[in-house]
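Marked as duplicate of an earlier ticket. Keeping the data here for the record.
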Amino acid sequence: MLRFWRATINSRNGLAFAIRSEQAIREEVVALALSLPLAWLVGATVMRRVELVATVVLVLVIELLNTAIEKLADRLTMDHDPQIGRVKDMGSAAVGVALVMAGLFWLFALAERMGAF
């Protein structure tokens, strides 16, 4: 139980640090807060509502991982390194793919709600 408690504290500390230090994380936390009530308006079923919120959570998770990669890379060296640049670009691409996926889920749910399907 102690291990679980410590892991919970570490997770809270990591999320708090990310929120304080990264604008993108703050924006995605706001998007998550907005998605909770909006999912109830847009989602036609309970499962669709869960899916809509889950896609926003997934974007936040990937952004947290991308931030961790960037912080680690910056800790290794602040000098320009092409390989580190490619790693950072791949992390950014992961966030971009997740954002597109979330956007498509929300557009599909809106179309479904409006009777297009």
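See parent ticket for discussion. The two ends are 48 Å apart (CA to CA).
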